[in-house]
Design the sequence.
């Protein structure tokens, strides 16, 4: 998940390095940008990762559609997942941000492709807005529906969230806050792959 304010270089360069390290989805999450600036950034990031990773746009179905992103990540107060799918097409990945296992179940019922569940641990990239859910929240989710663990995920605990039932992780600070985003992504990917094996 992006936050260009944490990046030590142009965001598209940092994202390209992270993808080289094993990131397979990039969620463009830059809420403060106006429409034109967000679309221009989406175009640059998509050009940097094309053919190597998917681009998902946070909250903005219009920007995802305009730039040709693979999907969108909807907030809790966004349009229903089924409406987003109707706009983006049947192949689009439609994610929903959630903060409790019951919300994950609701996202599945709405037709989402996956959910992000947060915060599992205290976030690395910003002050905590709510108490950490812990690993038990992942264990209470439907194992047949993909859930990405978000919040405080690092190399040392990435395997724990996979073993608790997460299909993957969504991170910001663990990669964008690193001196070497490619090496950070590679280490995180290795930890996830070990746990999945």
Sequence:
């Amino acid at each position: 998940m992006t936050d260009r304010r944490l990046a030590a270089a142009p965001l598209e360069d940092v994202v390209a390095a992270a993808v080289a390290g094993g990131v397979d989805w990039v969620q463009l999450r830059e809420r403060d940008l106006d429409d034109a600036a967000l679309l221009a950034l989406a175009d640059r990031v998509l050009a940097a990762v094309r053919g190597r990773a998917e681009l998902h746009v946070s909250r903005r179905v219009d920007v995802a559609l305009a730039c040709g992103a693979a999907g969108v990540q909807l907030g809790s107060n966004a349009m229903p997942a089924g409406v987003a799918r109707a706009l983006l097409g049947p192949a689009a990945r439609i994610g929903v941000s959630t903060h409790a296992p019951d919300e994950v179940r609701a996202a599945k019922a709405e037709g989402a492709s996956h959910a992000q569940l947060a915060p599992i641990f205290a976030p690395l990239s910003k002050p905590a807005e709510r108490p950490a859910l812990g690993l038990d929240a992942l264990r209470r989710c439907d194992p047949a529906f993909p859930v990405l663990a978000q919040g405080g995920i690092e190399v040392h605990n990435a395997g724990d969230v996979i073993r608790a039932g997460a299909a993957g992780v969504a991170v910001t600070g663990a990669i964008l806050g690193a001196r070497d985003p490619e090496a950070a992504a590679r280490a995180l990917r290795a930890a996830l792959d070990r746990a999945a094996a």
Summary: The first strand starts at residue 25 and ends at 28. The chain has one domain: 4-196.
